[in-house]
Amino acid sequence: MVALSLAHCPQIGRLLWFLIEVCDKWQDGMSTAERALTRREPKQKRSQQTVEAVLEAVQLVVKRHGMRAITTNRIAEAAGVSIGSLYQYFPDKRAIFAALHDRHVDEVRQLIEQTMAACRLAPLDEFARELVQGLMNAHAGFAELHDAVSSAVPESALGFKRALHHSFRQMLSYDDQQRYSLDEKERMLFVLPGMVESLVHGAAHQGRAALSRNGAEGEAIRAVALYVNSFQDIAPKH
Fold first, then answer.
1. How far apart are CA 217 and CA 203, in angstroms?
2. Is the same domain home to 83 and 140?
3. What average pLDDT does the structure give for the chain?
4. Half-sphere CA count of 216, side-chain side, radius 13 A
5. Which residues contact 51 (CB under 8 A, 6 or more apart)?
6. Which among 153, 138, 151, 142 is positioned nearest to 62, based on CA atoms?
7. Which of 15, 52, 69, 143 is deepest in the core (most CB within 10 A)?
8. Rounded to whole angstroms, how far apart are CA atoms 50 and 174?
């Protein structure tokens, strides 16, 4: 009887099939939502673990095969994840480099903040020395990837210089740095951020040059200290 009715009333038949399809989709949607609620937290943890594994694997690939051999397939293999899982978070190699840059920036920012807190009452030359040494160490393990990351994020050097400018400006604003005149502070802020940025990034690549990395670090610290101390021979300004 139903078949006969549907055969003679195609419009009713189409309506019934539409309602059945809507109900099926509604049920599927409910089950999907329920699964999402029960798996949301583990999925977030797995996501973080996968992302970290991929980023850590880049260094392994560089050590095993060199910079030119970096591919998403090799990174996925070293990370112990499928290439499909990698592409869920990183559409290409450039995106991986950008994520490495962001992580590196966070590490450098924390280092600058910690150095500023530790040297809050120290002379400016001591702060500069501690900052340069800390930044050198932070960049030492990042040297081989630096060029690739810089090409993925061209503004990285400018951002680093701005962070340095902010840190030196804040240090110079403290009461114990009032021996410097406003003109001297502005000159320091013009020179120091660019000097430190250039020296730190230059020293990070010294593993491939005649001067050792330790030698480059020593010269960088000496150059910054000499520049800062050149202002201390001038009588305090009131």
1. 6
2. no
3. 77
4. 22
5. 89, 99
6. 142
7. 143
8. 43
Q: Is residue 219 part of a domain?
A: yes
Query: Is 134 in contact with 203 (CB distance < 8 Å)?
Result: no
Which has the closest alpha carbon to 54: 72, 41, 42, 29? 72
**119, 228: one domain:** yes
Rounded Cα gap, residues 238 and 234, in angstroms: 12
**Picking from 150-159, 181-190, 223-232, which range would have the lowest pLDDT averaged per residue?**
150-159
95-124 in b/e form (b: 16+ CB < 10 A) is ebbbbbbeebeeebeebbeebbeebeebbb
Q: Which two tokens stand for residue 72?
A: 């998403």
Q: Which two tokens stand for residue 157?
A: 């050097």
217 and 150 together in one domain: yes
Output the pLDDT for position 238: 45
Cα–Cα distance between 140 and 173 in angstroms, integer?
30
Together in a domain, 120 and 222 = yes
Q: Are 114 and 66 in contact (CB under 8 A)?
A: no
* 14 lies in some domain: no
Q: Which of 158, 151, 109 is nearest to 131 (CA)?
A: 109
* Position 31 in a domain: no
Structure tokens at 214: 């330790």
Range of the domain at 78: 44-91
Task: Read off the pLDDT of residues 27-81 as tens digits, 9 standing for 90 and up.
Answer: 334 333 332 233 233 357 778 889 999 999 998 898 888 888 889 999 999 999 9
Residue 21's CB is within 10 A of a number of other CB atoms, namely: 10
Whole-number Cα distances in Å, 164 to 108, 137, 167, 170: 10, 16, 5, 10
